[in-house]
Design goal:
Blueprint: H1 13-24, H2 29-43, E1 62-63, H3 73-76, E2 79-85, E3 102-104, E4 107-108, H4 109-123, E5 129-134, H5 139-149, H6 151-154, H7 157-161, E6 162-164, E7 168-169, E8 171-172, E9 189-190, H8 196-203, H9 206-212, E10 217-222, H10 232-241, E11 245-251, E12 261-269, E13 278-286, H11 296-299, E14 307-316, H12 317-326, E15 336-341, E16 351-356, E17 369-373, H13 385-392, E18 396-398, E19 404-406, E20 416-419, H14 421-424, H15 427-433, E21 440-450, E22 453-454, E23 460-468, E24 476-477, E25 483-489
Parallel strand pairs: 1-17, 2-5, 2-10, 5-6, 11-17, 20-21, 21-23, 22-24, 23-25
Antiparallel strand pairs: 3-4, 7-9, 8-16, 10-14, 11-14, 12-13, 15-16, 18-19
Length: about 500
């Protein structure tokens, strides 16, 4: 494709300005086309809203625990493992690739991911392909890390490992023109969500290259989810059932009620050669940003909508290519309109829309799509410092193949951690909390920390524990070796 393929005269002045800006930054054509479709939807007043009246709950799905058949080695050899690595973890106060954060035993997310791949290549298939989707914010530091620690990945980094996420302009809410911010021009751009995976694969030519090299399946997961590892039973399930797109889901709990859920929607397919249109039920993903306010109570009803997307996805590469070719090299996913200010650190800067898509929304684009229920052990992302505390504790153990899984004494349920957001939302405060040591939590069901607290060395938490410090200035240091079991811990009066 070339820029000549875009009919500029048919576009609004605002859309034309966006195209000109993207072409000046050498954004690939597939991304420009995808963005133009989203911009057109925005111009027409579309919000990407999915009301309750348009969908139905999913009643039953197959379970991974019930599968016993492993795939043939030839299928493993035609599989690509890709980790999303574009996030900075700004919500935790980080300013570099989130996957460079220390997780356990001095090792980072990227360490564990690389070690998992080393194990798979040694014990399953040496031809297994590994890729990272980086953003412009994470590429340099990730490449430097690989050079220092994993030369075998660094040597293939540019040619095979890295897939670069696109960037798109933020648009002004009032005119939909591209925003400008001379104080910091980088603020004018935004990543288009992890749904950009498909556009990045196609627009970079890597999708065609993988197919030419004989790869047939792609397994994608978040870089901060170390429970998401290759499972040959899922590949066998896809192969034996001719599934083109498969989403791993978990049963929703109260802690998951604000996240996206799986649902069913009626899809009409035009008939061929004068035949009447046909209807069938297809799976779709609804995110909270796509739910009308009046339906939010229903959205959060975990008994009604009982499955949530883990963002562990399995995709047939030939089917992906065919589907994108049918849509002119794009995948027309529902647009998510995020309202922001052009400079996130300046609430008085111009109001903008960031247009994003969700990777899992592609489930509605494939005729042969499916979902499978997986155990919670395959979903252990770190979105907050509370998640990190549980992962660093002895509640999680490292397997011989470098996975992090719950200790058997946890009975399949990780400890629920509630940290005071005033003090422990960011890594700076969290680091002080565990500066002397991470407590044992293998027998802990729930822990809450409120106020200025610091764990001592070799603390042990059991059952349900609350730790509270009402003193706004003095840190409550829990004495070394203290065991807290089903109690509320308060500092002793001075």
């Amino acid at each position: 494709m070339s820029g000549k393929d875009i009919d500029m005269k048919s576009l609004s002045a605002a859309a034309q300005a966006c195209v000109t800006k993207m072409q000046a930054e050498k954004v690939n054509e597939a991304c420009i086309r995808t963005f133009l479709r989203q911009h057109e939807m925005l111009s027409s007043g579309a919000t990407g809203s999915i009301p309750d009246s348009a969908i139905k709950p999913v009643e039953k799905l197959d379970s991974l625990d019930e599968l016993t058949v492993q795939c043939e080695n030839a299928i493993l050899e035609s599989t690509v493992v890709l980790k999303l690595n574009g996030g900075l973890g700004t919500g935790m106060g980080l300013h570099d690739a989130k996957t460079l954060l220390e997780v356990k035993d001095g090792k980072t997310f990227l360490d564990f991911t690389a070690m998992q791949m080393e194990y798979l290549r040694k014990n399953c298939s040496s031809r297994l392909r590994f890729m990272l989707m980086d953003s412009f914010s994470t590429s340099a530091s990730t490449k430097a890390f690989m050079k220092q620690h994993y030369p075998w990945l660094y040597d293939a980094f540019d040619a095979e490992v890295e897939l670069m996420q696109n960037q798109v302009p933020k648009v002004l809410q009032d005119t939909l023109e591209p925003a400008t911010w001379p104080t910091d021009p980088s603020c004018e751009w935004a990543p288009p969500g992890h749904g950009d995976l498909y556009t990045a694969l196609y627009g970079s030519g890597k999708l065609r290259e993988l197919l030419r090299q004989g790869y047939r399946y792609l397994f994608v997961s978040n870089g901060d989810n170390l429970g998401a590892t290759l499972d040959s039973r899922i590949l066998a399930y896809m192969e034996n059932n001719a599934v083109d797109f498969l989403m791993e889901v978990c049963q929703r709990t109260e802690s998951d009620k604000k996240g996206g859920h799986l649902a069913l929607q009626t899809k009409k397919t035009p008939g061929k050669d004068g035949a009447p249109a046909t209807e069938k039920m297809v799976l779709l993903l609804r995110e909270s940003a796509q739910c009308p306010e009046e339906d939010m109570e229903s959205f959060q009803d975990i008994r009604k909508y009982s499955f949530f997307n883990t963002n562990n996805l399995w995709i047939s590469l030939p089917a992906l290519m065919e589907t994108m070719e049918q849509h002119g090299g794009t995948l027309p996913l529902p647009v998510i309109r995020n309202e922001k200010t052009v400079d996130p650190s300046d609430s008085k800067s111009p109001k903008v829309f960031q247009l994003e898509t969700a990777m899992g929304a592609a489930i509605a684009m494939f005729d042969h799509a499916s979902a499978i229920v997986v155990p919670r052990s395959r979903f252990a992302p770190v979105k907050t410092c509370a998640d990190l505390l549980a992962l660093r504790s002895d509640a999680y153990v490292i397997t011989p193949d470098s996975r992090l899984v719950l200790d058997e004494h946890c009975n399949g349920r990780p400890p629920v951690v509630d940290l005071d957001s005033k003090h422990y939302k960011l890594m700076k405060g969290f680091s002080k909390l565990v500066e002397r040591g991470v407590p044992s939590m293998v027998h802990c069901k729930r822990v809450g920390v409120k106020g200025l607290v610091q764990f001592g060395a070799k603390n042990v938490l059991k059952g349900e524990v609350k730790i509270e410090n009402p003193d706004a200035e003095k840190v409550y240091v829990i004495p070394d070796g203290t065991v807290l079991e089903n109690t509320t811990a308060l500092p002793s009066p001075a």
